[in-house]
Amino acid sequence: DAEPRYLVSVRPARVSNNKKSCSGRTKTQKPLQLVVGTLTPTSVFLSWGILVNPQHDWTATNNCASDRFYTVRYREKGKDKKWVFQLCPVTETVIDNLKPNTHYEFGVKDNVEDSIWSKTFNHKTVLSSKYLT
């Protein structure tokens, strides 16, 4: 019994979150600018972002876009058609399983409080792959 005995008490350490937290927001929400491009007769590529005017909106690029999620919506053109919604963690996506030679409406918004939808972007899918180069 000549060996010393110790009682060790362990408390959980604070978790250090090295991930950048997003605190900066613009005072007024601006709609995102959406671009739609044709990939195939049944798919399109969507990309979006904030249109920045460097003379006035120089802080707009510091709004932690990489920490956000976005909601994309699309439907066949027509008021009686239902929107299909898709959640995206990045500022681009591919929408597939569309009908060839069909008019569609697309929109996107940031998933932050009081965000607004982008202007609706109208796009017609191509008839066949012979038009793609």
Blueprint (SSEs and pairs):
Layout: E1 33-40, E2 43-49, E3 70-76, E4 84-88, E5 92-95, E6 103-110, E7 121-124
Antiparallel strand pairs: 1-2, 2-5, 3-4, 3-6, 6-7
What does this structure look like?
This protein is mainly beta. It has a domain at 33-54 and 67-124: Immunoglobulin-like. It has strands at 33-40, 43-49, 70-76, 84-88, 92-95, 103-110, 121-124. A four-stranded antiparallel sheet has the order 4-3-6-7, with no helix packed on it. Strand 1 (33-40) and strand 2 (43-49) form a beta hairpin. The chain is elongated.
State the total count of DSSP E strands: 7
CATH architecture classification name of the domain at 33-54 and 67-124: Sandwich
Assign an overall shape. Answer: elongated
Helix content: under 10%
Determine the CATH superfamily of the domain at 33-54 and 67-124. Answer: Immunoglobulins
Sequence of strands across the biggest β-sheet: 4-3-6-7
Provide a count of the helices.
0
End-to-end distance, in Å?
85 Å
In short:
The protein has about 130 residues and is an all-beta fold. About 0% of the residues lie in helices and about 30% in strands. It has a domain at about 35-55 and about 65-125: Immunoglobulins (Immunoglobulin-like), CATH 2.60.40.
